[in-house]
Amino acid sequence: MSSRIAADSTPKSLHCLAMRLLEARLANPSAFADDPDPSPEFDDPALYHYAIFSDNVLAVSVVVASAARAAADPSRHVFHVVTAPMYLPAFRVWFARRPPPLGVHVQLLAYSDFPFLNATNSPVVRQIDAGNRDVELLDYLRFYLPDMFPSLRRVVLLEDDVVVQKDLAALWQVDLDGKVNGAVETCFGGFRRYRKYLNFTQPIVLDRFNPSACAWAYGVNVFDLETWRRDGCTELFHQYMEMNEDGELWDPTSILTAGLMSFYGNTKPLDKSWHVMGLGYNPSISPEAIRSAAVIHFDGNMKPWLDVALNQYKALWTKYVDTEVEFLTL
Ligand SMILES: [Mn+2]
Question: The organism sits in which domain of life (predicted)?
Fold first, then answer.
């Protein structure tokens, strides 16, 4: 069953899944609390906290299930899932029907739950309000982690196209050397350096950045929220978004570039085994690299829930799809 679901899960059937979940809630509203009481674990800084920004219920369920299964003590892991308001009911039904596995904690939120995300505070919201359709608020929420989670000191950002294969508790012991962002670097030789992402013919870019600085990846990022607040990285991000309103400094649709600017000189390279990339486009990743990876990342267009997924990697994702969910009987 699970392989059939994943093989057939086109974006259209994922949308159907969200609709079915919503239907279940309309049919039986009292079974699904609108706003369940927050658990004390949600803001306990002694626990391991993850942020996932997504509108894909199935993908998020795989991230959570895989991380829970890999954890030595799942009850110490807390997942903060933030979605668009229209998808929140679907997430609520899913996690009501299938409570978080193995005692992990899951907090479900919509970005409308954060009042500071308004046009006065945020140039991103202003650009969306102005009709800039290239900007998706969900994608930019990662720049607001310290404001979203004021009581937390550290958060790991996981994208929804990853699978966790090892206990991530050790990420909380990684020494970031006073930097804000822990990430795996992606440069090799002359490739994937800042010159690829920024327009160095602009004096302001040339002034501030080294063109041969090494780029890093989103997917698995350890963020020290206290240092982030101290260094004002969100404010810096806002400045760059405003400077680039005409799109001359960098491709304004690239969230990575916004990150490369905002955390420039503030990123600590993580060991590459924390985050192995390319499963959404590269058919020849070494099996050994995949086996020893703490997290594998299906970055690229061939997502594991799509028909075009690379066959040799598909099972690494589908084995975490919860086949007991009745809505999946398509
Ligand atoms: Mn990704």
Answer: Eukaryota
pLDDT at residue number 16 = 78
What's the pLDDT score for residue 311? 95
- Tokens 């670097």 belong to residue: 185
Pick from 171, 301, 178, 274: nearest CA to 218: 274
Residue 295 C-alpha to ligand 1 middle, in angstroms? 12
Print the domain residue range for 144. 2-174+270-328
Asked if residue 58 belongs to a domain, the reply is: yes
Alpha carbon of 296 to ligand 1 centroid (Å)? 10
Please give the distance, rounded to the nearest whole angstrom, from the Cα atom of residue 191 to the centre of ligand 1. Answer: 20
Q: Which residues of the chain fall short of a pLDDT of 70?
A: 1-13, 30-36, 133-134, 325-330
CA-closest candidate to residue 133, choices 252, 11, 272: 252
Question: By the 8 A CB rule, do 140 and 255 touch?
Answer: yes
Spacing, Cα 50 to ligand 1 middle (Å): 15
